[in-house]
Amino acid sequence: MFAYKFRDRLLQMLLSVVIPTMNERDAISDVITTTRKALDGYSYEIIVVDKSSDDTATIAAQSGAKVIHQTHRGGVGAAFRDGFSHARGKIIVTLDGDGSYDPTDIPRVVEPILSGMADFVNGNRLTEGREKGSITTLNLIGNRALTWIGNICFRSDVEDSQSGMKATRRDLLERMSLFEAGFPTISELIGEAVRARGRIIEVPITYSVRKGSTKLSPGIDGVRIFLATVLLMRDYNPLLLFGGLGLFLVFMGALNSVPVVAEFLARGTFQLIGRAFLTSVLIIAGFSSILVGLILDSTNFSIRRLEARILGLGAPGQPLGSVEHHVVEPLESIGDRLHVAVPTSISDEVGLDDLERTWRISVRRAVTQMLRDANYSATSPGILRGASGVQYDFDIVASRDHETWVLDISGEEVSPDDSSVPSLFAKILDARPSKATLLAIPGISPQTRKLAEMYNIQVVVGNSTAQLCDAIRLAVKGFPREPA
Question: What is the C-alpha separation between 179 and 77, in angstroms, rounded?
């Protein structure tokens, strides 16, 4: 019974690839086939959200994707919301169905999330990997302008905000409020990731000429995206929008007043009544706009603070999903995670130490079995003799093709202040395996990661056993893919 429960946990989906389509019959089959090959070794699902009048949905289903018909009115933004609602993965990846994005870039996009470095990854098309003619000059200028406006609006720092290939952790996505129905949702995703205090990283990707006709009209959709960006600025940075508009109006009013002031200084009076009236209107409107910006910015700050408290985002800069060392998880919730019966009373002779021990053993068994399936000779627990002659106990020792791994599992976020960290590193250095890995759930501190890099110790982080095993698969070549 225990083994079956762990098998169910291991089969939890890691990746959900959401592909919105509208008459993409020329490209969708190749996109799905290439995606399946690129994700060989991952647990994944491919979701096609279709709004086509041709046979795109049929081809997608025959190629192995899960097809759902778009229910919300609108464009790509509505399709994303439909896809997100059906996705089961811990990491959500967005991808276009026109063949312009290379699915083989997906592992590169999700790697910063799997390694614990990011919560949101944006694919940057504006690199050397961009195929000639894939982006027109007009679209490139518009992209640069919208990215610049978005970076100012959202206080972000990306180079290609309009990229359709992005990856985000599910828990971050659940903190987002997405309302845009069309192309502006691409910008909205970044803005919401910043609002939810996600760690954002941008990685280079390749970009090719799309197959079939484009659905994006540079003129009409460019204006729509610009107007939507202005509305997003109203919501995210009202002081910048209204304050900037106010300063512009005050400047125009001051400029318009020059002849009036000059006439008054020369004659002691003025006859340019219309110009004086326009100057007054511009300056009053400018200061009113600045005042509105200040009020909205103050209100926006208070709402964000309240929202952060409700969502439990904590202090700025705190990694999402981190666990404070002084927080003790209730016995009932630990029992649910371990699939073991927990007594209703703490006095029933089951304590946190017993549950933590059971959990540690279960993780060790799951990882060991996964390594054995990958043709490793894995023992759990394992023993290695160090160069000093001392024998060391490790959670797992695995070997294959003259390659030796030692793995040690941390059951809580590892801090460099933890005395077990330097002692673990000392054991590994003495044992001198060809590869050493520290497994951590849910994460490690940046200082510990730097220390591991200094000693050439690999770190694999996961928020669950399933995610931990999926992350290990990245370093295990030849491991068979789990059924999607």
Answer: 8
pLDDT, tens only, 202-223? 999 999 887 766 666 656 666 7
Q: Which tokens sit at 286?
A: 């400018």
Whether the predicted model's global pTM rises above the 0.70 cut: no
Pick from 97-101, 154-158, 287-291, 419-423: least confident: 419-423
Q: Where are the beta strands (DSSP E) in 372-442?
A: 377-379, 382-385, 391-394, 396-400, 403-410, 435-440
The Cα–Cα gap between 73 and 70 comes to 8
**In the numeric block, which tokens belong to residue 21?**
């389509």
> Which pair of tokens denotes residue 225?
């995206």
Return d(Cα 125, Cα 100) in angstroms, integer.
10
Closest CA to 169 of 277, 69, 90: 90
φ/ψ of 46, rounded to 5, equals -115, 120
Is the bond leading into 381 cis (omega within 30 degrees of zero)? yes
How far is the C-alpha of 342 from the C-alpha of 346, rounded, in Å? 9
Q: Among 3.30.9.10, 3.40.50.720, 3.90.550.10, 3.40.1050.10, what is the CATH number of 14-236?
A: 3.90.550.10
HSE on the CB side for 312, CA within 13 Å? 8
What pLDDT was estimated at residue 213?
64
**Tokens of residue 205, six digits:** 């990707």
Beta bridge partners of 112: none
Give SS3 for 473: helix
**Cβ-contact 339, 363 below 8 angstroms:** no
- Please list the residues that pair with 405 across neighbouring strands: 398, 435
- Please state the domain extents for the chain: 14-236, 238-311, 352-462
DSSP lists the bridge partners of residue 101 as 207
Tell me the CATH architecture of domain 352-462. Answer: 3-Layer(aba) Sandwich (3.40)
Partners of 398 in the beta sheet?
378, 405
* 82 membership: H or E segment, kind and range: helix 76-86
- Given CA atoms 272, 275, 279, 281 in this order, what sign does their dihedral have? positive
Q: Is the pLDDT of residue 442 over 70?
A: no
ω into 343 cis (within 30 of 0): no
Locate tokens 């089951």: which residue? 350
Buried b (16+ CB within 10 A) or exposed e, 144-170: eebbebbbebbebebbbbbbbbbbbbb
Render pLDDT for 226-238 as a digit per residue (tens, 0 to 9).
776 677 777 777 8
Instruction: Enter the tokens of residue 44.
Output: 């994944």
